[in-house]
Specification:
four-stranded mixed β-sheet; 181 residues; alpha+beta; three-stranded antiparallel β-sheet; globular; single chain
């Protein structure tokens, strides 16, 4: 990540109000999307990953806007985003006890469509504390299985796996907006 990009992100995420939200939606900020493209082209430098990890650690007390795509029959507005359980597992890889989130609403829609083929999908935005995020080890394992030499850091989870996961439910207070189908 270039210094100018980090400066722009820090400026946009500056303490303008008590509820600060970092939003990496590619429509607003191409930073993660650009790193994702570089990673898939094998041109991402390890120092860029480490720099992004340091930046995430420095933002642990801030909120980040992430997205989750799911079936429109779920009562997310009242119940929040519920974690995967053995009864609510739509992917063999998803670990129980987590809600999976991505920085890209389009990917959220794709993940929702894979989980609920042929059903109406709604993408929810949620603001979660950076410190509540855990690497999506399932997506990282997928990338390792196709030859990527990567670890299990939160930065790698965002760059190579397009998101992260939260232990437990994301409360309905955090889910504040619904994207139409």
């Amino acid at each position: 990540m270039h210094d100018s990009t980090i400066t722009q992100i820090r400026h946009r995420a500056g303490l303008l109000e008590s509820w600060v939200t970092i939003d990496f939606n590619p429509e607003n900020d191409p930073t993660l999307f650009d790193m994702d493209v570089k990673a898939r082209n094998h041109t991402l430098e390890p120092e860029e990953v480490r720099e992004f990890q340091r930046w995430l650690v420095s933002k642990r007390s801030e909120f980040i806007r992430l997205y989750h795509g799911t079936w429109d029959g779920h009562d997310v507005i009242n119940k929040g985003l519920l974690p995967t359980t053995t009864k609510r597992r739509n992917s063999y890889q998803s670990s129980s006890g987590y809600v999976y989130l991505t920085y890209d609403p389009q990917r959220a829609r794709s993940f929702g469509s894979m989980a609920y083929p042929g059903r109406g999908i709604v993408v929810y935005a949620a603001d979660v504390l950076v410190r509540s995020l855990h690497p999506d080890k399932d997506q990282l394992a997928n990338m390792r299985s196709v030859g990527y030499d990567i670890g299990d850091s939160l930065a790698e989870s965002f760059i190579y796996g397009a998101g992260a996961r939260v232990k437990g439910k994301v409360t309905n207070i955090s889910v504040f907006r619904e994207f139409p189908r």
